[in-house]
Amino acid sequence: MTPLGTLLHTFRSAAVTEREKGSYFEELIVRYLSHEASYRDLYSQVWRYSDWAREQGLDARDTGIDLVAQTRGTGEFHAIQCKLYAETHRLQKSEIDSFFTASGKRPSPIASSSAAPTCGASTPRRPCATSSRR
Hints:
Layout: H1 3-14, H2 18-35, H3 37-42, E1 43-48, H4 49-56, E2 67-71, E3 77-82, H5 97-103, E4 110-111, E5 114-117, E6 129-133
Parallel strand pairs: 3-4
Antiparallel strand pairs: 1-2, 2-3, 3-6, 5-6
């Protein structure tokens, strides 16, 4: 098993609830996007949605957006959805509908219109997050 696979297995085993498992994974993705070279160059800052929303004076309740990242240079905000499923799980559109709805609301300081997975949803080699941006 890869080191990432071992870490994800630990998240799945240690978490008492799905929310706790998701929180572990979201924190991993914040760290990944903040330190992995290509994302570190792209983003000046990455927040959990609730932290970012509070800073913006917005409702911080769970809307389907997990993380927000601000791009270097343009200052554009990207909405990010994180999913940690079993390695054999195939992601279905219905599982990310709330993300598309939340990231597409207007007026919104978060850019959205197209979405692309930034990594594999069930491969243990790379964390998974879906980013929505203009």
